[in-house]
Design a protein that fits this description.
This protein is α/β, with parallel strands linked by helices. It is built from eleven helices and twelve strands. The protein has two domains: 115 residues, 60s Ribosomal Protein L30, Chain: A; 165 residues, SPOUT methyltransferase, trefoil knot domain (Alpha/beta knot), CATH 3.40.1280. Strands 8-7-6-11-9-12-10 form a seven-stranded parallel β-sheet. A five-stranded mixed β-sheet has the order 1-4-3-5-2. Helix 6 runs parallel beside helix 11.
């Protein structure tokens, strides 16, 4: 059963860290992150309790968010609909007036539910982490939290095994990114690389075909590309693919485009010159999903 206690103001020391909900830099400096929403907080609690393969690719090994949920803060209206979820997890639940939650974020928080958790150590991309991953996403300079969240949600839905972010990418544990991803940033494995170029080098050394997404007219139309037409015989026998995407506007750097094994474009009308990066990534992931044998 959950431990449920009432709090009346932000002065209560038990919820002091929630004061930084709208200050992501302060949260990160303190080694914390906040999850928001009645649909997403349960994802954190499940990851907090998980010992198995949902969060870790090694059965029986706790995932990175095991044991990291510190507490939950809810409005009275959110408590009853979520009580069964809370009772299933040994995490303190604090109930505060709606006005207290609103003060934390500076506007009316209709979802009425926040959770505080400790950050896991940053995972650095290594050959061992790549392992036997079949589908990888590499992001260069994608820093918009809506795009980060949307990409992770597509990665979860369409079977990406790993997301790799360069130093210019946004924080997958930023509250808005987690919410937009519907908790997928807590489910899909991800790692940081020292640069997108280093990520491609590591992936290619493991036999992974690196396909750069670009609107360039000279790129191969996505429907015409099959992952088995990769960089070597081994890749053709057991295709492993990394889709590489850049930020909107600038796109991928010239050096990453040069290093990629193939350039892919999504055919579109002449009404626009490109797609939102999260949308483009989802389309490319779907193509790979239906093209690569399971």
């Amino acid at each position: 059963m959950a431990t449920i206690a009432a709090v009346s103001s932000l002065d209560d020391p038990r919820i002091a860290a929630y004061r930084w909900t709208a200050e992501p830099a302060r949260l990160e400096a303190e080694g914390l992150f906040v999850v928001e929403g009645r649909l997403v907080v349960p994802v954190l609690l499940a990851a907090h309790a998980c010992h198995g393969a949902v969060i870790s690719d090694r059965e029986g090994v706790p995932g990175p968010f095991h044991g990291r949920a510190q507490s939950v803060l809810v409005s009275p209206a959110a408590l009853e609909p979520m009580r069964e979820t809370f009772d299933a997890h040994d995490v303190p639940v604090f109930v505060a007036p709606q006005t207290v939650l609103d003060d934390l974020v500076g506007f009316r928080i209709h979802r009425g539910c926040l959770a505080l958790a400790t950050r896991p150590p940053v995972t650095t991309l290594t050959p061992d982490l790549i392992g036997s991953a079949r589908v990888v996403l590499v992001l260069e300079g994608v820093n918009n939290p809506d795009n980060i969240g949307g990409i992770f949600r597509s990665a979860a839905a369409l079977g990406a095994d790993l997301v790799v972010l360069d130093p210019g990418c946004g924080d997958p544990l930023y509250r808005k990114a987690i919410r937009t991803s519907m908790g997928a940033t807590l489910q899909v494995p991800w790692a940081r690389a020292t640069s997108a170029m280093d990520a491609l080098s590591l992936l290619q050394a493991q036999g992974v075909v690196c396909a750069a997404l670009t609107p360039s007219p000279s790129a191969v139309p996505l429907p015409e590309w099959m992952p088995s037409t990769g960089r070597d015989t081994a890749a053709a026998a057991a295709p492993r693919v990394a889709l590489v995407a850049g930020a909107e506007g600038g796109g991928l750097s010239a050096e990453v485009l040069t290093a990629a094994d193939v350039h892919l474009r999504i055919p579109m009308t002449d009404r626009v010159d490109s797609l939102n990066v999260a949308t483009a990534t989802a389309i490319a992931l779907y193509h790979v999903r239906v093209s690569v044998p399971s």
